[in-house]
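Severity: low
Component: inverse-folding endpoint
Summary: output formatting inconsistent between runs
Steps to reproduce: submit the following structure tokens with default settings.
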């Protein structure tokens, strides 16, 4: 059973300086300042602008403990939307929520959930029943490179559920709620190469291919209901996932873009109701001009050279 915990929703009113807790405990601001730097360099965020009347007052961000999901939470909070933070690590999410509550005066709720496990999405659904949610930023996922034949059946199931099926189930639930409101939207996080195939990363790519097709279909199907669906095709981006996958950045043909840029372009595209969002002009040009067969060959060679998971 997935443990669910609703952390206190913290509201900071700029005039009165008061916090109001609607959960089990009052959140206190994180004053460590660790968010101001990443890998030792100063981070100057220019958050994308969101239509709060359309996507507010609450947003759900899955995969919010690190990488793209964490940066999305930062930029969503900068627009004044309250946040439901979802990932496995409750303590990390609580620290992030406290930081954003102190900085932007938002409310937050933490829902620990391992979305690789069947049924885990119920924690998110049940944990948001009392909230007026207008945005789902669905970014839960991970990469697991390796030879396809080396994986076990349970590993394959977990990868597909986390990277594909969990997105479908949460999109179905929240799209029903958005349709009743007559407004709202979902941003589905996919990956470059998911439609054409990624050698030595076949299973996550296949799961993200499901996300791509789902998003393209629903973008048209749900438009009349006032529900926006956009798909973020993640191009090489500087997140902890690069290191986690065992990739050597020096062997990658193109330098990863800052995560702030990736998320800013994603949220801007969502706000404009674009179906597909591919950050980075150079990546868009390459994707359009270079034959997919050549990309697969080059990717297979890169994976052999740059990751510790492929022999």
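Observed output (run 2 of 3):
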């Amino acid at each position: 059973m997935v443990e669910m915990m609703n952390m206190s929703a913290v509201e900071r009113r700029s005039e009165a300086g008061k916090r109001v807790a609607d959960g089990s405990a009052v959140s206190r601001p994180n004053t460590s300042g660790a968010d101001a730097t990443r890998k030792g360099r100063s981070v100057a965020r220019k958050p994308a602008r969101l239509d709060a009347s359309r996507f507010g007052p609450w947003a759900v961000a899955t995969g919010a403990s690190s990488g793209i999901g964490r940066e999305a939470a930062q930029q969503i909070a900068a627009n004044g939307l309250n946040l439901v933070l979802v990932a496995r690590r409750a303590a990390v999410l609580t620290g992030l929520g406290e930081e954003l509550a102190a900085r932007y005066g938002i409310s937050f709720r933490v829902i620990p959930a391992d979305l690789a496990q069947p049924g885990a999405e119920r924690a998110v659904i049940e944990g948001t029943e009392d909230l007026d949610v207008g945005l789902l930023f669905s970014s839960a996922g991970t990469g697991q490179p390796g030879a396809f034949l080396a994986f076990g059946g349970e590993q394959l199931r977990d990868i597909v559920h986390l990277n594909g099926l969990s997105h479908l189930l949460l999109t179905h639930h929240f799209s029903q709620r958005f349709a009743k409101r007559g407004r709202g939207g979902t941003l589905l996080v996919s990956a470059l190469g998911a439609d054409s195939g990624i050698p030595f990363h076949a299973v996550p790519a296949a799961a993200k291919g499901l996300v791509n097709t789902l998003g393209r279909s629903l973008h048209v199907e749900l438009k009349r209901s006032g529900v926006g669906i956009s798909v973020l095709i993640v191009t090489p981006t500087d997140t902890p996932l690069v290191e986690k996958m065992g990739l050597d950045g020096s062997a990658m043909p193109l330098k990863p873009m800052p995560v702030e840029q990736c998320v800013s372009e994603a949220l801007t595209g969502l706000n404009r109701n674009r179906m597909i969002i591919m950050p980075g002009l150079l990546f868009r040009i390459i994707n359009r001009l270079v034959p997919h067969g050549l990309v697969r060959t080059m990717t297979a060679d890169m994976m052999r050279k740059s990751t510790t998971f492929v022999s």
